[in-house]
From TrEMBL:
Keywords: ATP-binding, Nucleotide-binding, Transport. Belongs to the ABC transporter superfamily. This is ABC transporter ATP-binding protein. GO terms for cellular component: ATP-binding cassette (ABC) transporter complex. It comes from Aureimonas endophytica. GO terms for biological process: quaternary ammonium group transport. Signal peptide: none annotated.
Length: 329
């Protein structure tokens, strides 16, 4: 197995006039579950394809362990990629699909089947070994794709939106499975997702991209409690971005309370523009004097003694200590 610590140094990708990835720097220590998030077109897939070798970087270096892999062929990198559409061979059995890339590497049949059997055991596919992909459910096909990527003992596994084709129930189940597998194998997973909740649930390291650049790379807790910019605060959700004397600050929606606060709080007043009951909490949207909006998430036992009604004007506050100063965009 390759040593799985990954470093990107000023990695850039241009497609003609389009600057898809703009000189990004990133360190992913070995054994990290790393999730990539960001709006459509921000360069996530291009970054993954450059790491896997399906695309060559326009400039910059990609270092895996002690080796510069920037221009190596995909099979020589010690990386593996699981594609969104699984890309299984329809005419090959599960066993042969999984063993395929070892055949390409010239390993003997006995060795290929031994190794494929081992990986199939790991992802619970052994009983389907002789089936064709068409005879499997979506979740099972995905496990074949996963086994196929893992059979080469990669130091890094790249998953480009692996859960998007699955229904919500299966998505949750597979997500737990992926995390278990990553821990068990001890290798890094680089996982592209559109789900903020998915990234928060899985990642040791969350990388948020915007316009080909990395806006923030940090632990889920840091990204949530200390978003670097207004973009990150808004993109991750659960935050308000407010302009105060010190500049733009983020305030978590669950730190906003109805009623006036004391000297250590910032108290505003505005129209109640939305009230949504969510079970344990109630989400209240309030106007600000500057013409913006603040979202408050209030525990139901605090809300119902003095419920806010649509259209009325209410005071609300948050502790100044709950403000987190953002970097200018
Ligand atoms: N083969 C290509 N040729 C030209 N432009 C491309 C190519 N692949 C991607 N791009 C452009 O590069 C930019 C980044 O694309 P990329 O697929 O990396 O984004 P992404 O963040 O993965 O998006 P999504 O979340 O929609 O998959 C986009 O502007 C896209 O149109």
């Amino acid at each position: 197995m390759a040593d799985g610590s990954l470093e990107l140094v000023k990695v850039t990708k241009r497609y003609g006039e389009t600057l898809a990835v703009d000189a990004i720097d990133l360190r992913v220590p070995a054994g990290t579950y790393c999730c990539f998030l960001g709006p459509s077109g921000c360069g996530k897939s291009s970054t993954m394809r450059m790491i896997a070798g399906h695309e060559i970087a326009s400039s910059g270096d990609i270092i895996l362990g002690a080796q510069n892999i920037t221009e190596l062929a995909p099979a020589k990198r010690g990386t593996a990629m699981m594609f969104q559409n699984y890309a299984l061979f329809p005419h090959l059995t599960v066993l042969d699909n999984v063993a395929f890339s070892l055949k390409m590497r010239g390993q003997s049949k006995a060795e290929r089947y031994r190794k494929a059997g081992e990986v199939m055991e790991l992802v619970d596919l052994t009983k389907f070994a002789s089936r064709l992909p068409a005879q499997l459910s979506g979740g099972q096909q995905q496990r074949v794709a996963l086994a196929r990527a893992l059979v080469t003992d990669p130091g890094i596994l790249i998953l480009d939106e692996p859960l998007s084709a699955l229904d919500p129930f299966l998505r949750l189940k597979v997500r737990t499975e992926l995390k278990r597998l990553q821990r068990e194998l001890g290798i890094s997973f680089l996982h592209v997702t559109h789900g903020q909740d998915e990234a928060m649930a899985l990642a040791d390291l969350v990388v948020i991209m915007k316009d080909g650049r990395i806006e923030q790379a940090a632990s889920p807790q840091d990204v949530f409690h200390r978003p670097r910019t207004a973009f990150v605060a808004k993109f991750m959700g659960g935050h308000n971005v407010v302009d105060v004397e010190e500049g733009a600050v983020s305030v978590r929606a669950d730190h906003v309370r109805l009623g006036a606060g004391g000297a250590a709080a910032r108290t505003l007043e505005g129209e109640v523009r939305g009230v949504e009951y969510q079970g344990a909490t109630v989400t209240v949207v309030l106007g600000t004097p500057a013409g913006g909006e603040i979202t408050a998430v209030i525990p139901e036992d605090r809300f119902f003694p003095e419920p806010a009604e649509l259209g009325e004007t209410r005071a609300y506050h948050w502790a100044k200590s709950a403000e987190y100063v953002l970097e200018p965009a």
